[in-house]
Amino acid sequence: MRSILFALLALIAVMGWMHAARAAESYATCTNTVTALPKTISTAGNWCLKGNLATSASTHAITIATDDVTLDCNNFEISETGGAATTGIAIYSNNHFNTTIRHCNIQGFEHGIYLSSSSGTSGGGHLVEDNHLEGSTVTGIRVSGDDSIVRDNLVFDTGGSTVAGTTSTYGIYTNESVGVYDNTVMGVLGHVGANGNAYGVYSAASSAGTIDTNRLRGMVSDGTGKAVGVKVAGTGRRAVRDNDVFGNGASNTGVSCAASTARAKDNILDGFVTGRVTCGDAGDNDASH
C-alpha cells in the first residue's frame, strides 16, 4: 500500500509539473507586455498580452524577430477588421528558433500564426499550442522548421479571401518535420471563383512528422478544386493515425499521401468519395462514403 501511495504521489507531482510547464508566463508575473499593434519583439524571453488588441491595417500585427521567445496571450484577442481583402498576419516570424505561441485568440487575418523558415534548418523548434483561431481568410496556422509541434488548437471558419492569386485554403499547414497533434479544425472553404482547394491539415515536403488525434470537419472546395482532410506531400516516413476526418459526402479524399512511405492507421474517414489515397495501410482505417 505504501509503495502504491508513493507511486500515486509521484504521478501527481509529475502531472503538476507538466501543467506548470505548459502554463508559461502568468498574467500576474508577466513583465514583457505587448500593449499596442503593430509590435516587433526583438528581445528573447517571455512576452504576454494583458488585454485585447486590434488593428485595421493589413500588416504583421506581432513580428517575432529573435530566437527563444514565448508569447502567451492569456486568452486575450488579437483581431483585424480588414475583412476578406486583408493581407495581414497576426503573429509572424521568419528564420528563427524556439518560438512558443500559446493561449492566443486570433480573429480575421489572412494568416493567423505564420512561423516561416527558408529551410528545415534555418528555423524551427517551435511550439504552437492552445490557441483559438477564427475567420482566417487563407490559413489558420502555418509552421515551418524541423522539430516543431502544433497541438491542442481550435481552428474555425477558414477561407473567404478575395485577394487575387489565392487558390488553396488551409486549416493547418506545416513544412519540414512538424508534429500535428490533437487539434480541431472545422470549416475550411476553398477560394471562391478560383476552383479553390480546401485542406484540413496539409503537410508539405517533410522527412518526418506525425499527424495524430485531430478532428477535421467541413472542408469545402470551389468548382473543380479538391476538398481533402489530410494531405501529406513528399516521400518522408510519416504516420497519420487516430484522426476523425469528416467530409460532406461529395468531398474528395479523407487522407491523401504522395507515397506509401506515409502510413495511415486507425483513422475514421467518413463522407469522402475516396477514403485513402496512396498512404500505406497500417490497419484499422474506417473509410465510409
List the SSEs and their pairings.
Layout: H1 2-23, E1 32-34, E2 39-41, E3 45-49, E4 53-55, E5 60-64, E6 69-72, E7 77-80, E8 89-94, E9 99-102, E10 105-107, E11 111-116, E12 127-129, E13 132-134, E14 139-144, E15 148-151, E16 154-158, E17 169-175, E18 178-181, E19 184-189, E20 198-203, E21 210-212, E22 215-220, E23 227-232, E24 239-241, E25 244-257, E26 263-265, E27 268-277, E28 280-283, E29 286-288
Parallel strand pairs: 1-3, 2-5, 3-6, 4-7, 5-8, 6-9, 7-10, 8-11, 9-12, 10-13, 11-14, 12-15, 13-16, 14-17, 15-18, 16-19, 17-20, 18-21, 19-22, 20-23, 21-24, 22-25, 23-25, 24-26, 25-27, 26-28, 27-29
Note down, in words, how this protein is organized:
With 289 residues, the chain is mainly beta. 8% of the residues lie in helices and 49% in strands. It contains 1 helix and 29 strands. It has one helix spanning 2-23, and strands at residues 32-34, 39-41, 45-49, 53-55, 60-64, 69-72, 77-80, 89-94, 99-102, 105-107, 111-116, 127-129, 132-134, 139-144, 148-151, 154-158, 169-175, 178-181, 184-189, 198-203, 210-212, 215-220, 227-232, 239-241, 244-257, 263-265, 268-277, 280-283, 286-288. The strands form 2 sheets. It has an 18-stranded parallel beta sheet that branches. The protein has an 11-stranded parallel beta sheet with strand order 1-3-6-9-12-15-18-21-24-26-28, with no helix packed on it. Mean pLDDT is 90; it is low at 4-21.
What are the main properties of this structure?
289 residues, mainly beta, 18-stranded parallel beta sheet, 11-stranded parallel beta sheet, 1 helix, 29 strands, globular
